[in-house]
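Entry 12.
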Amino acid sequence: AAIFGAILKRAPEYVSSEKIIPAMYGANDGPENERNVVAVLATRMRRKLAPLGLAIESRYSKGYRLEVAG
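Predicted 3D structure (tokens):
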């Protein structure tokens, strides 16, 4: 839910993994492979959002953003 909130808050702009990670873990350090965790969670969210007509787009070196599919 935190990843969706971080992306939704900045829509339609891209949000980098570096900005999503603090939303997920707060001030605490996350796991060592934080970027992989963000990628996996984004993939899971794509599956859940697709039936609603929404998509999470990822762009190398820019981050993730929410868009209307179609």
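Annotation: Residues 17 and 63 are 6 Å apart (CA to CA). The helical segments are 2-9, 17-25, 34-49.
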